[in-house]
Structures
1.
Amino acid sequence: MRKYGVVDTTFSRVNMGDIAERTIKKEDNDCEIKRYTVPGIKDLPVAAKKLIDWGSDGVITLGWVGRTQLDKYSYLSTSIGLIMVQILTSKHVIDVTVHEDEAEHPDDLVRIAEDRATKHAINLVRLVRDGESSLRGYAGKGLRQGYRNAGELS
Ligand code: RDL
Ligand code: RDL
Ligand code: RDL
């Protein structure tokens, strides 16, 4: 049985943790999921690390970045932290981030969050369950999360 970690925040304005949990359960019926909710994005790296220490084969984090320059700096440090966790543990930590300035209208932000969380949860299951070659068939296809696919150029 595979173990997945789901880390989300109370800062987020969409419950992306629920979306990720639902999607993982649907995609992989032989799995256990541990959920960890933290206040904000800078708390994600240690929570991801703790879920890996607990035995997660892979983790998905779901963060929401505010509109200010300060928020963007917070995300940069978060991203470096999440990459460090991956390098230190040799486990995937799939980083779902919605930047509040990606859209003006709340409905569009919800749509981006739902699409990105769902598609990346599927990516996590594929990487964890099916390994290095799981995305090989999609290489160079211009896939996007949160938007329609950009598509391949050649
Ligand atoms: O450890 C407590 C907080 O420092 C931590 O939760 C931060 O991630 C909170 N936070 C900021 O301090 C900030 O300036 C967040 C953001 N911006 C942000 O854009 N998104 C967050 N948290 O989830
Ligand atoms: O862990 C899942 C994603 O966070 C990760 O695959 C990112 O590299 C995806 N990504 C972005 O989030 C982004 O803002 C990418 C780009 N920009 C980019 O320009 N090129 C990418 N990925 O390959
Ligand atoms: O081409 C439009 C978008 O793909 C581009 O603006 C990306 O940078 C948007 N984006 C993020 O900002 C992000 O934090 C993406 C991701 N994460 C992601 O995981 N996958 C994306 N875009 O396709």
2.
Amino acid sequence: YITKENKQAYQYLEKQLQRLPRNENVKVLVVDDSAATRRHICSLLSRHKYQILQASDGIEALAMLEKTPDIAVIITDNEMPNMNGDELCGEIRRLYSNDEKAIIGISGSDASHLSTRFLKNGANDYLRKPFNNEEFYCRLSQNVDMLEQIATIRLQANTDFLTKLPNRRYFFEETTKSLKKIEKSSQASSLAMLDIDHFKSINDTHGHDVGDEVLKGLSICFAKYFEKQLIARLGGEEFAVYFGETSKEEALKRLEGFRHFIELSSSEFSNLKIKFTISIGYVHGPVYQIDELLKQADIKLYEAKESGRNIVIS
Ligand code: GH3
Ligand code: MG
Ligand code: MG
């Protein structure tokens, strides 16, 4: 489950993993009313294999940003019809944070107040024409590096290290946002907690490393099965699914399906031939605090364990 905010972070990471030459994946938008200047900047960019988009003024630039959400860097002239570069900067910053997109202002004017205005309006950097090609590349690639570092850190902060599932922190943040929306429309919220049965005995019998492999195998199935839901590893051998606007019947059908699937196929994970089951506690109702929802689901989960495990209790 990937939200819009995190999509860029995941895309960056995927690209890093694919080990493609980086620049080919970096989209740069060049905004200048002079076609000749655009051509010059674009030829510099294409020599380093950046993906290039062009706009001849601020309005066109904003439309392109909306249409192409993964533009990473905007290089903008200052004096343009309709909207100056520094105003464009301000508009971009109203919509996109500076850990999402970098802006580099360019201007022919040598008035120093211009660079200040660019920076005040949220530009990351400023170049004065005529600029040295080497300097242009250095500033551009430093800004791209910064965006990638932030994306990597954000992804790591939201991901469980062992299973690569979204972690508890991410789950709390995202469900809290969603619950606020659901509360406004007075819809019921819906959440389940899953826990491996007798996991301790898997560790005790086969060792902690095998226990880890079981957690990883389960996580892959879990993520695939609940592709459209917000999921997380809450900790240990405990997982959660948040169902947003799904009906109670539909959610229970999915959960029962997953419980059954694990009962049948757990032994195939990583060729370990270890069979295990899971217990699930499910809540549905007008509850809009994530900690309260989890508390109620945990009570149901406890009931599932008490009643003999390998069961969904709602
Ligand atoms: P129940 O059916 O009641 O849930 O029993 P259980 O054994 O699954 O539950 P218990 O809470 O007694 O034990 C959970 C175990 O999970 C204990 C802990 O060592 C193990 N565990 C927690 N995190 C990890 C992990 O990251 N890797 C491994 N291998 N084990 C873990
Ligand atoms: Mg357990
Ligand atoms: Mg447990």
